[in-house]
């Protein structure tokens, strides 16, 4: 097949670093590549990249589980030698513990693990180090990388390269080669250590050696560098010669004249005989390596790497208020359906519904093409019609009340609690009349409404008015949330619960939604309203006589194969198998998403808890919220800045915020058609003056969250 993906899958950690991105570039046509980055989001044409916090075993597990690689090249590391010395704990987290987690995660998997180590594991005294020489790092960077090697050694058949590299970066950060060139190009004098020797290899030459090593499936520890060595002073002079700059700009200097935080070895040149023999390949000399670097420069590689499609963008530049997290597994799941016979009305829909129902603890689930459609068919299934009244919260997206209006019912708004921002049970109690057909409590931001109280009130009012009042939970913000240890969606306190799978929600199907219920009769109606009001179930036929061949006067076992009946006025609200395959794949990651959301929420809570002008959300003890939104109440008057300016100031720093919600009863459509107005729900209106939803989504890094915190506190203090 022309467009078939390469069979093997290669996962590269540290893809935003010099080696990681060069390897991704080199291997992009040979393997299906997934690159993992932490805080620097990177896009590389031809490969998938995704965020992964290497210090979080769940995050690693998730990426590996989702992609299912056959090879991993583990480049992620803290490589700044002085930073490692200053913050040993951070260096250990990344260089040792993250490596341990990675190894543990793939312990029983048939995955080839390749670890990029360093020449700094040697002490740089005797030089010409071979792999059997004693390891004796002079600094913490070398020590932590060696400890990383020991972790990797626990994985069968693993491969370790000790190396020193230079190359073209895709980041604005300069690699050593680029630093030398930039200085020489602008005629600046540079110093080179004349007493520090190494055998630094060009990244793409190193990539070639790795490529061969993979194909030959070698394992063990190998030095990889150039076949000869030179001092860093000579290295810079060679650069100047090769690129045609003035070599006199380079001056010799001694390492001893410099006071680095970390000690450094002086003679770190590597003996590469073992690798050359093992892979039967001649590694380049320093001159050849610099020439390759130069040739790639002439062929425009630096520009290619730095072009937009290869470029790195600081992820904080793109901190939206919410967004989906799609990985390779999700994409593959969709591709699989596209290759299958049924892209809609096939088996994935039932599979998705079954998974949702089982997770929430409901008997039935009916998946549809949006949360709005789900609300609409829930109202239809409740028999909603003109003259009926529906009570809901004003602090919601317009869909929560529009669904009633679609059925020609009359929307009624009950005010919210100033603490939870959810509709008050007392308001529901006050507003139920003999015409009330449904109550739609909205679990705002993920926190459940007081369902026990609402349930009791509604059932008592049913008795009082001798009528049926349906409770339809709008759980569009609350997949994964619990109330009194029951999952939202269990319908323990309601007739139906609705969820949305819009991309900002907990899991996504692009667009999509579901209605959950324990009631078989409602379930059957929901199924019909989802698809034109049509049924093919003989027991539901209104004119069964038309359903059978004339010859089958008494035998009613074989319905005419084409026969169906439209028994209601339904809609085409069907969801596709393509969407449900995505939903199923997303669903496997819901626990990870939930955990990550909670981690960010905790970070925000800690940061904002002691500020007089900022109020973090209150969490009711009865609820365990899977936060869809994190809403701050900010006293804009006290800090003397309007919300619009506050938001645009954050926007300028690359942080998107939102306002959830403009009270629905103040929307012109409702004011004009239903006579609602400002003043009708004072709590919701007061809340609206102060609320601001700040970014929250699972692929946010801690650095992203810290940036959000920093910028908000900065503006507040101004
Ligand atoms: C509370 C609430 N209800 C209903 C909906 C409608 O869901 P959808 O966008 O999937 O139609 C949304 C969507 O944002 C929502 O937030």
Largest sheet: 7 strands, parallel
Q: What small molecules are bound in this structure? A: pyridoxal-5'-phosphate
Tell me the β content. Answer: 5-15%
For the record, give the distance between the C-alpha atoms at the N and C termini, rounded to a whole number. Answer: 61 Å
Cα shape: elongated
**Average predicted local confidence, pLDDT:** 93
Class by SSE composition? alpha/beta
**What is the topology, as strand order, of the major beta sheet?**
3-2-1-4-5-6-11
- The helicity comes to 25-40%
- List the uncertain runs: 1-5, 308-316
Number of strands: 28
Radius of gyration from CA coordinates:
31 Å
Total of helices: 25
Description:
With 718 residues, this protein is of the alpha/beta class. 38% of the residues lie in helices and 15% in strands. The protein contains 25 helices and 28 strands. The protein has a seven-stranded parallel sheet with strand order 3-2-1-4-5-6-11, sandwiched between helices. A seven-stranded mixed sheet has the order 14-22-21-18-17-15-16, with helices on both faces. It has a three-stranded antiparallel sheet with strand order 20-19-26, with no helix packed on it. Strand 17 (436-440), helix 17 (451-465) and strand 18 (470-474) form a beta-alpha-beta unit. The longest helix is centred in the last third of the chain and has 19 residues, at 590-608. It is elongated. The relative contact order is 0.09. Residues 1-5 and 308-316 have low confidence and may be disordered. Bound molecules: pyridoxal-5'-phosphate. The site of pyridoxal-5'-phosphate has 14 residues, from helix 14 and helix 15.
């Amino acid at each position: 097949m022309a467009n078939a993906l390469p069979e093997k899958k290669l996962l590269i950690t540290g893809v935003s670093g010099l080696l990681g991105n060069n390897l991704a570039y080199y291997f992009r046509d040979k393997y299906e590549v997934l690159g993992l980055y932490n805080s620097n989001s990177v896009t590389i044409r031809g490969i998938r990249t995704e965020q992964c916090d290497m210090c979080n075993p769940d995050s690693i597990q998730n990426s590996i589980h989702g992609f299912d690689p056959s090879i991993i090249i583990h480049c992620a590391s803290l490589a700044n030698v002085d930073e490692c010395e200053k913050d040993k704990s951070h260096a250990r987290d990344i260089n040792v513990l993250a490596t341990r987690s990675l190894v543990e995660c793939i312990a029983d998997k048939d995955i080839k693990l390749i670890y990029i180590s360093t020449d700094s594991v040697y002490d740089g005294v005797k030089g010409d180090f071979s792999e059997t020489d004693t390891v004796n790092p002079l600094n913490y960077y070398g020590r932590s990388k060696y400890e990383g090697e020991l972790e990797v050694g626990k994985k069968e058949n693993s491969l370790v390269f000790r190396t020193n590299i230079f190359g073209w970066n895709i980041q604005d950060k300069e690699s050593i080669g680029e630093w030398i060139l930039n200085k020489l190009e602008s005629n600046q004098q540079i110093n080179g250590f004349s007493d520090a020797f190494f055998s630094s290899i060009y990244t793409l030459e190193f990539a070639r050696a790795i490529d061969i090593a993979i194909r030959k499936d070698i394992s063990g520890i190998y030095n990889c560098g150039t076949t000869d060595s030179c001092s860093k002073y000579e290295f810079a002079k060679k650069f100047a010669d090769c690129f045609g700059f003035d070599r006199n700009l380079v001056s010799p200097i001694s390492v001893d004249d410099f006071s680095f935080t970390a000690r450094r070895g002086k003679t770190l040149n590597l003996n590469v005989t073992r690798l050359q023999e093992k892979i039967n390949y001649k590694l380049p000399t320093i001159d050849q390596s610099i020439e390759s670097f130069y040739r790639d420069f002439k062929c425009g590689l630096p520009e290619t790497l730095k072009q937009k499609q290869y470029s790195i963008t600081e992820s904080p530049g793109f901190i939206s208020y919410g967004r989906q997290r799609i990985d390779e597994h999700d994409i593959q799941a969709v591709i699989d359906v596209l290759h299958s016979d049924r892209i809609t009305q096939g088996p994935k829909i039932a599979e998705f519904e079954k998974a949702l129902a089982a997770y929430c603890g409901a008997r039935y689930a009916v998946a549809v093409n949006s949360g709005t459609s789900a609300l609409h068919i829930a109202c239809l299934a409740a028999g909603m019609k003109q003259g009926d009244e529906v009570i809901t919260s004003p602090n919601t997206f317009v869909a929560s009340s529009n669904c009633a209006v679609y059925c020609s019912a009359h929307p009624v708004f009950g005010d919210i609690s100033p603490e939870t921002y959810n509709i008050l049970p007392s308001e529901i109690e006050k507003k139920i009349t003999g015409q009330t057909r449904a109550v739609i409590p909205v679990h705002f931001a993920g926190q459940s409404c007081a369902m026990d109280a609402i349930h009791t009130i509604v059932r008592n009012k049913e008795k009082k008015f001798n009528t049926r009042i349906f409770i339809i939970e709008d759980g569009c913000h609350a997949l994964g949330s619990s109330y009194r240890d029951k999952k939202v969606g269990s319908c323990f306190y309601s007739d139906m619960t609705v969820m949305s799978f819009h991309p900002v929600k907990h899991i996504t199907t692009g667009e999509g939604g579901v209605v959950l219920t324990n009631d078989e009769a409602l379930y059957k109606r929901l199924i019909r309203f989802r698809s034109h009001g049509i049924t093919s179930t003989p027991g539901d036929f209104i004119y069964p006589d038309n359903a059978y061949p004339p010859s089958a006067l008494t035998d009613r076992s074989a319905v005419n194969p084409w026969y169906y009946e439209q028994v209601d006025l339904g809609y085409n609200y069907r969801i596709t198998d393509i969407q449900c395959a995505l939903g199923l794949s997303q669903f496997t990651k819901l626990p990870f998403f939930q955990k990550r959301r909670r981690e960010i929420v905790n970070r925000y809570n800690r940061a904002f808890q002691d500020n007089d002008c900022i109020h973090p959300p209150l969490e009711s003890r009865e609820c365990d919220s899977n936060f869809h939104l994190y809403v701050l109440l900010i006293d804009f008057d006290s800090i003397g800045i309007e919300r619009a300016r506050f938001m645009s100031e954050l926007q300028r720093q690359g942080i998107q915020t939102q306002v959830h919600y403009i009270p629905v009863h103040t929307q012109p459509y409702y004011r004009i058609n239903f006579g609602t107005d400002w003043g009708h729900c004072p709590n919701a209106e007061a809340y609206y003056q102060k609320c601001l939803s700040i970014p929250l989504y699972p692929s946010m890094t801690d650095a992203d969250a810290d940036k959000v915190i920093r910028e908000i506190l900065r503006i507040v203090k101004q």
